[in-house]
Each structure stands twice: as structure tokens, then as C-alpha cells.
Amino acid sequence: MSFVFFDTETTGLKRGFDQILHFAAIKTDANLNEVARFEVRSRLLPHVLPHPAALLTNGLPIEQLTDANLPSHYTMVGQIRNALMSWSPAIFVGFNSIRFDEEMLRHALFQCLYPAFLTSNHRNCRADALGLVMAADAVSPVQLVVPLSAEGRRTFRLQELAAANGVAQTRAHDALSDVLATVELCRLVYQRSPELWQRFVRFSNKAAVADFVEAEDGFVLTEFFGGQAYHAAVTSIGSDPDQANGRLCLNLNADLSQLAAMNDVELRNCLAVKPCPIRSLRINAAPTLTALLDAPGHVLNECEISGLEDKARQVKADPAFCARLVAAYVASREPYPLSPHIEERIYNGFPSRDDEARMAAFHDVRWEERFAIVQSLDDERLRWFGLRLIYSEARSVLPKTTRAEVERYLTNQMINDGSGCLTFDRAMAETDELLMAGTASDVLLNQYRTYLQNRSARVAAFRSQLALPVAAKGYS
């Protein structure tokens, strides 16, 4: 199977609110030879305020982001989708992509009325190169050089890793440059540790992960927090009833007799305390897994494999005990409240089949016909995103009252704390803080500060002309 390596540069880190500005991808064959590449940028959405730290990181002046010659966000997302669909099926890989770039891509697709889960569907698989290099360092440290930060801590930042391992980068935090660096780091692991690479490829497929977790008596789950690897010998105790792709595992260092002797309340209270002996994994998130027989001694804390296998078989032979553990663990969770912000509800249900058909039709008709399609959508998330799309791309086709409501809602988001968005006041405060700290990019920050002042003044003047009440109509 081929690989698609990709990266995004964005206006900030907040999923659902920030946008992709620059997307790049490289397709390779199974041996990591480049086959094709794709790159696209977009201009800033009218309702998005970039975080000044993101502008600094990416080296992007605000004038570049507002260049009218750049494609609109909707046009860019459509081009991204077309390119990635033409390269499917493939294994999609980025650097910290499962936690960030994939999420940004999913939100961008969904908010442009496309199916969100492109990299998980169409027989595609997904994996994360950050997990690969961390696993290489944890399991076989000689394969890659992990540099130290200025504070003396090991760092897995892409640009530092690339430099330490002789991978040239023309420009850090440029999407295409970061993709090229990611490909080169993967080639190093591919060449130096074929077994680790094969495991990486194998577990990019969620069916393979599910089979492994179910079939193995015990295995090692490696998780990464704060740039550190944490290994645990575990055994699967069942599926997560709240997440179709979730699996729950018991740490084999736990005292089984003590857990079995607890009543339900005691068990629930025990599992609510950190560190919890139950670990969760997602079979569709390319977890780092190692068979017990393949794990080096330091990963197993020098425990005997036979003893771990015996404990794992003991747990699996008692389905009632496993069921009690799963029930107690689920009951110990804090409830996850529904976000008040519609932008953060991407995982609150899939669109219906009828809405999927309407989403597809939306892209195939003239803008004058799209408003009627948006009105017919059952999903309130899609209705709002559809209205916002039409407003951004062809606002003249909206009825005057609808257009005014969208304008009021979007401008309210830009000025009201608690809207979920970066507001003018917050953006100005963050910019001033960075200016006070002193950087080599004061010109870029001062340009952005002027932009914020001018834009907020225009928004204030515009809002004063709206013949609607100040309070925002709730689309969320």
C-alpha cells in the first residue's frame, strides 16, 4: 500500500475554530519513494482571528493571509479532498497528525459540508510518525538521535529531530518542508529498524490492531506523555461501551486478588484514582503495541514473560471479572458535557443518510440553489456551517434577514469572551504580551496589531448599522 505524508499550518491550535492556511502532502510507494506531491494555501476566513503566536511560528505576515489572490478556504478544502481521494486507499502519516493535523482536517472537511473522516474511510489507514520516532527511541534508542532542548530535556520537536539526524529542512513550520522532513525520518527508521517499521505499518490498520489486542494474552502498550514513553504490560478486558473503536486493558502489574475482592463501589472508587490500572486505547489511532516476546527487558521492567502471560490468561479466563472492571471504569468517568459551541460538536453523531445526500448535492449546484439545500438539512451543525459557507463565498444570494443574522452571530463571536473563538481583545492582549517579551519579528507583530485595531473598528461600525438586537441568535 502507498503512503500519504501530510502536514498543515494553521491560525492556531483550537480545533473547530482555527483554520488551515497551508496544506502539503507527498505520496510515496511502499518503499517510501516519492510518487507525487500536492500543496495549497488559502486566505483567511472573515470570521477567524489568527493567534499571534501562530503567525510568529509560521512566519506569516497578516498581509499574506488576506491576499485576495489566494484561494478561499472552501476552495482549498475542496482541492485537498480531491487530491487525497485520488490517492486513496493509502496509509496517511503525519508528525503528531492524529492529535492535531487529522483533527484540523476533519473539522475543515465537516465545516465545508464534506464527510469528515476521509483518512479513516475509503479503505485508508492512518499512523503517526511522532509515535514511530518515540517508539524507536523507547524500544531501540540507537536508531535515532534525540536532541536536548535548551532546558536540557529530550525533545521530539520535528525541526530539532530533523537537524540532529542529518535531515535538512529548508524552512521549519512550512507545511511542505515539514512533510519532507517527516518522510526522511521515516526512511531512517525503515532502513535501520525494519521490524519496528513493519509493526508501525501493521498497526495503522484498525482491524489488525483489533485482532492483535483480542488474540494476544498480554502485550505492551506504550503511551507518550510530555515527550516521555510509558510502557505497561496489559491484557484486553473488553470493548469500551462508549466508543466503538475503544478497547480497555488491565495493567498486569495490578493486584488481581485485591481488585476481585472489592465490591462495586470500592472498585469504582479505586479506578477513579490516578494512576488507574485500566488503560484505554483506540484501535483506529495507530497505538504503539508490542508482543511480550518482542519487548526488550527494560520495557517489561525486567518482569518474567511467563509470569505476565499467566496473569493475562487468568484475567481473560474470568469474563465476569472483566465485565465488572469495564462497568466500574465506565461508571468512574467524569461525564463529558455537550459543548455549548457548535464548532466543537463534530463527534456528537454522524449525519443521516438523507443529510449525506444533501451534502453531496450542495457542491454540485450553483450558489443560488445552495441556500435551499442548507435549509433542508436536518442536522443543525450542517445548517449553520452551510449558512456560514454561503456567507463567506456568495453572501449576495442569502436573504437579507438571514445574512444579517449570520453577520450578527459571527461578529458577536469575535468580540464576546466565552464564544470559543479568539476575540479581538484576547488577540490584542496576546500580541502585546509577545511584543513586550521582545522577538526578532516585532515588525510582523506590529503589522498584526494594526490589522486588529483597524478590523475591530470596522466591525464595531458595522455592528452599529445592524438593525437587529445585540444579543446573538443561538445557532449552537
Automatic annotation (TrEMBL):
GO biological process: DNA replication proofreading
SMART domains: EXOIII (SM00479)
Binding site for Mg(2+) 2: 9, 178
Gene3D superfamilies xref list: Exonuclease ExoI, domain 2, Exonuclease ExoI, domain 3, Ribonuclease H-like superfamily/Ribonuclease H
Domain named ExoI C-terminal: residues: 338-460
Cofactor note: Binds 2 Mg(2+) ions per monomer.
Protein name: Exodeoxyribonuclease I subunit C
GO cellular component, one term: cytosol
Source species of the chain: Mesorhizobium australicum
Cofactors (names): Mg(2+)
Binding positions for Mg(2+) 1 per the UniProt entry: 7
GO molecular function: DNA binding; metal ion binding; single-stranded DNA 3'-5' DNA exonuclease activity
Residues of the ExoI SH3-like domain: 194-333
Annotated positions binding substrate: 9, 157
Keywords assigned by UniProt, alphabetized: Magnesium, Metal-binding
Pfam families, A to Z: RNase_T
